[in-house]
Amino acid sequence: MKITITVENPTPEALEKLLALAAMPAAVVTAVPDDRWTAERARSYYERLPPRAQQILLQVVEGQGECAADELKANGRNLRGSTGAFRRVLTEGKRIGLWPDALPVPLVSHIVGGQLKKLEMPGRDTEHYALPDFREGLGLQNGR
Questions:
Q1: Could you tell me the maximum CA-CA distance found in the chain, to the nearest angstrom?
Q2: SS (HEC) of 23-64
Q3: Residue 124 carries which DSSP code?
Q4: CA atoms within 13 A on the CB side of 38
């Protein structure tokens, strides 16, 4: 049996009761901070993206967390409107309670001189780096 509980701003009394419940014999407790991606969150997020945004996210994940805009536009593909879906889907998921409010957008745009140069997953070399969670959530191995 797996039970997932999200508690935002718990009172000390509520936290004490939850910890007592978790201390029961054979209980397995894992805590995921509200500002971290998990494989489950990543998969759920990916499934809610429009098809072109899914393709872009997949290219970024396969590109080890970044992808040049020229590569994303290869074969005449357009990015117009596609990149806005990343923030829009995250905001909607937070609004309906799928994900915690502190969860960061998984992709950021790098714009130089008004031109999109690349998309990347922020937080490389930190505990906030979402690439491993997206790789697992999308069923990708390290070498693909």
A1: 59
A2: CCCCCCCCCCCCCCCCHHHHHHHHHHCCHHHHHHHHHHHHCC
A3: T
A4: 11
Q: Contact 124/135 with Cβ under 8 angstroms?
A: no
Sheet of 108-112: strands edge to edge? 66-68, 115-120, 108-112
With a cut of 80, say whether residue 108 has pLDDT above it: yes
Structure tokens at 129: 């780096």
Q: Give just the sign of the alpha carbon dihedral 21, 96, 102, 90.
A: positive
What the block records as the tokens of 80 is 């117009």
**What six digits make up the tokens of 18?**
């939850």
* Contacts with 88 (C-beta within 8 Å, 6 or more apart), sequence order: none
pLDDT more than 90, % of the chain: 49
User: Which run of H or E residues covers position 88?
Assistant: helix 84-95
Cα gap 41→31, rounded to integer Å: 14
AA identity, residue 110: H
Q: What is the pLDDT of residues 25-84, one digit of tens each?
A: 766 666 677 889 999 999 999 999 999 999 999 999 999 999 998 898 887 777 776 778
